[in-house]
Amino acid sequence: MDAISQPCHAPTLIVTGRQDSIVGYRDAWAILDNYPRGTFAVLDRAGHGLYTEQEKLCHALFDEWIDRAEEFAEAAE
Fold it and tell me: Which of 58, 62, 14, 4 lies closest to 38 in space, CA to CA?
């Protein structure tokens, strides 16, 4: 596992494409323990250009992550 010195407790979103032949999706799972508030999504019918291949789904994931990030920032103030 690619551990970091301190876990990142901020909301995190890791999005990968199931059909990504350049980077793949399995290796990204190994870093999830570094992000206790992380969401890990593997999008079917998406490769390396997953944003353009699954735009609506990416927007939904991004919007939800932004909501969590804003809540996290407000709680830290």
Answer: 14
Question: What is this structure's pTM?
Answer: 0.88
Kindly report, residue by residue over 17-36, the tens digit of the pLDDT: 999 999 888 888 889 989 99
How many other CB atoms sit within 10 Å of the CB of residue 46?
23
The DSSP code for 32 is G
Domain boundaries in the chain?
Answer: 13-76
DSSP 8-state secondary structure symbol assigned to residue 34:
G
Could you tell me if 41 and 60 are in contact, meaning their C-beta atoms sit under 8 angstroms apart? no
Token pair 């206790």: residue: 36
pLDDT, tens only, 31-40: 998 999 999 9
How many CB atoms sit inside 10 A of residue 43's CB?
A: 20
- What span, in angstroms and rounded, lies between the C-alpha atoms of 2 and 42? 19
